[in-house]
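Researcher: Next entry in the queue.
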Amino acid sequence: MIVDVDFQSIKQQMNQAIAINVKNPNLQNLLHSFVNEKKSFNFGHLALVHHKVFGGKDPEVLRMAAAIELLILSFDMFDDLEDLDNKLEPWMQIDPAIALNAATTLYTVSQHTFLTLSSPFQHQILHAVNKYAVQAMEGQHDDLQNSLNTEKECLEMMKLKSGSLIALASVSGMLLANAHYPVVEEYSYQIGIAAQADNDFRDLFHPMKNDRSLQKKSLPILYLQKGYNKHAHDLLTFFASGKEINEEFGDIKNYKQKLIDSGVAQYLNVIRQVSINRAIRMIEELKIDAKQIETLKTNIIKTNKTF
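Model: Structure for this entry, 307 residues:
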């Protein structure tokens, strides 16, 4: 069963938190504009799903979902400002100093929103949020340093950078329901690795990614650097050239075939599927009703896009 989520209510809660905490009208309007541009609320959805599955009925779950989405939005902004990519995002089209201050404000408003929860489990939730937020920052640090040299190091970075944010949302929803299952953290890490592998694949096609992104030591780049065939060498040469896909390969179809011929597309799909399978096995170990297990799998696994 797909859990219905009132995304408009989450957006309203986000805007309300900004209105309450930010008094500068110009900054407030800027933050509202970023929130109103959001098209997805996947992390808020994760929190709501876990709250429901573990028997939670706290009316404040929407406000907590909004706090999570404010934090995620701030992290998205930090990530883009640090990587200097995703140029079409509204915060990438303004003064970087103003964008950085806006991201810091959103992060702080998120923290304050968690503090306004009247739940007796508020302290546990905020402790978990900060734990996973720091882990995500550690993963981002490793990514920015660009010193990863092995698949194992890459997977650990992906677990921290992406998996920690999945865990932040999932564990928060669970804790608000007064449930405690350590395996939720573990399968969240696996889902994060799968999602990052998916992102790494999409980044190979992203026309707004800069040269630095394509030269960063990610799983696909490390795979291609092993030089299993001429196609891998051709792709690395293309990434270093700064050329457009059509300029080098004629069209996107030829480029995609080159990715397949190099083996990198299949490699990332295997990484993703292995992580998904691990997550499924962990979810099935939960000592909860079979229907709730299926709800988790449907909302977390089966709704994820494939390559």
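Model: The two ends are 23 Å apart (CA to CA).
Researcher: Noted, moving on.
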